[in-house]
Amino acid sequence: MELISSLDIKKTEYLSKDRFVSFHHQMRLIFSLGSQVKSILEIGIFNSMFTDILRMSKYKVTTADVDPNLQADILLDLASDFSLPQDEFDVIVLFQVLEHLPYEQSEKALKKLAEATNKFIVISIPYNTQFLGMQLRFSYKHRSRYFFMGLPKFWETTPICDQHYWEMGMKGYPKKRILNSISQAGLKVKQEFLDPTHPYHYFFVLEKSGA
């Protein structure tokens, strides 16, 4: 796995409109968990924007990453036999992270994270699909209306991003397999969501069984 700081990515390019759509939903889903969440572990960082917003919202945030150049609070390699402090984090978040590991390693990492979290894990993973998404907005309505029709690319063997080992929807990785891995990790799906304007990022809010 290549370190993100070694890639030729300009932050101005990384912070695209679609990326800000994802930032919005990341925050919205955290906020939806209410007062039962006070401490957060964010795994996988490239800029401090999400962390800064969480801290401004009075959450206690710890960051973790495999890339030492990003100067996270914890140097963490999910592909290793890692350990995390117990009973310290109400929610662990990983947005577009697990697909950077071979699938079997991502399953093992998810199990260890489920053991470490007090209550929740919130993730997004890439959704490899052909789709038609539309946003409709009317002057007399405060909220937009959406239409989405998608077909997972079950015939596709190559992820959209060449930095990914796998993506949900492609051949060998149907949603059913992802849900089974979630269940095997001792987690249950509390909420799942995609934005029809940017369905490539598919969100799951996972709750620790018995929490």
In words, what does this structure look like?
- Strands 3-2-1-4-5-9-8 form a seven-stranded mixed beta sheet, sandwiched between helices. The chain has a two-stranded antiparallel ribbon with strand order 6-7.
- 25% of the residues lie in helices and 31% in strands.
- The relative contact order is 0.16.
- It has one domain: 3-Layer(aba) Sandwich (Rossmann fold), CATH 3.40.50.
- β1, α3 and β2 form a beta-alpha-beta unit.
- The chain is α/β, with parallel strands linked by helices.
- It is globular and about 45 Å long.
Brief rundown of the structure:
This protein is of the alpha/beta class and 211 residues long. It has five helices and nine strands; from the N terminus they run H-H-E-H-E-E-E-H-E-E-E-H-E-E.
